[in-house]
Amino acid sequence: MLKEGTKAPDFTAADQAGGKVKLSAFRGKKNVVLYFYPKDMTPGCTTEACDFKDQHKKFKETVVLGVSIDSAERHQRFIDKYDLPFDLIADTDQKVVNKYGVWQEKKLYGKTFMGIVRSTFIIDKTGVIRKIFPKVKVKGHVSEVLDALKAL
Fold first, then answer.
1. Which of 44, 103, 110, 124 is the most exposed place for a label (fewest CB within 10 A)?
2. What is the pLDDT at residue 1?
3. What is the per-residue pLDDT across 12-54, written as a single tens digit (0 to 9) for each?
4. Domain residue spans in the chain?
5. Half-sphere exposure of residue 73, counting CA atoms within 13 Å on the CB side?
6. How far is Cα 101 from Cα 110, in angstroms, rounded to an integer?
7. Type and span of the H or E element at 130
8. How many degrees, rounded to 5, is the angle at CA 150 between CA 57 and CA 22?
9. Active-site annotation holds for 50
10. Is the distance from CB of 110 to CB of 23 less than 8 angstroms?
11. Which of 103, 26, 27 is nearest to 67 (CA)?
């Protein structure tokens, strides 16, 4: 599991438009909020994405990136439907979720399966993880992220 104060694992992955997003491209320029969520268009994930959208103007020196294993096409529909102002990473090969340790065994209704555990990482301009929010509860989470960014 990753720890606060360590270098964030770099990655290059496709966004909703099929473009490439490279985490290290933000080094020296902006902080990054990297939030992992299970699935586009589901109630909790929609609420979380819309909370980030509603507070987006407050993320002045920060890039917000959402990550799930959904396809780029599904991400684009999600962005279009909810007018999301940030990129979504299509981690269809699960490389990013594995690097960040959020692809884990989950249980729901008595069934065990692998999936994304909702988590958020705040990465500073030098590429160091400054805050990890494991097993995120959606309600109030974006406010917690904003408060943590103020401390940077």
1. 110
2. 79
3. 999 999 999 999 999 999 999 999 999 999 999 999 999 999 9
4. 12-150
5. 0
6. 23
7. strand 129-133
8. 65
9. no
10. no
11. 103
Which residue in 45, 65, 69, 102 is the catalytic one?
45
pLDDT, averaged across the chain = 96
Joined tokens for residue 128? 């160091």
Q: What tens digit of pLDDT does each residue of 106-129 get?
A: 988 999 999 999 999 999 999 999
DSSP string, 43-108: HHHHHHHHHHHHTGGG-TTEEEEEEESS-HHHHHHHHHHHT--SEEEE-TT-HHHHHTT-EEEEEE
> How would residue 151 be classed by pLDDT, with cut points 50, 70 and 90?
confident
Q: What is the pTM of this model?
A: 0.96
User: What is the CATH number assigned to the segment(s) 12-150?
Assistant: 3.40.30.10
Cα–Cα distance measured from residue 135 to residue 122, given in angstroms and rounded to the nearest whole number: 15
Q: For residue 5, what are its two tokens?
A: 């104060």
b/e per residue, 113-147, with b = 16+ CB within 10 A?
eebbbbbbbbbbbebebbbbbeebebeebbeebee
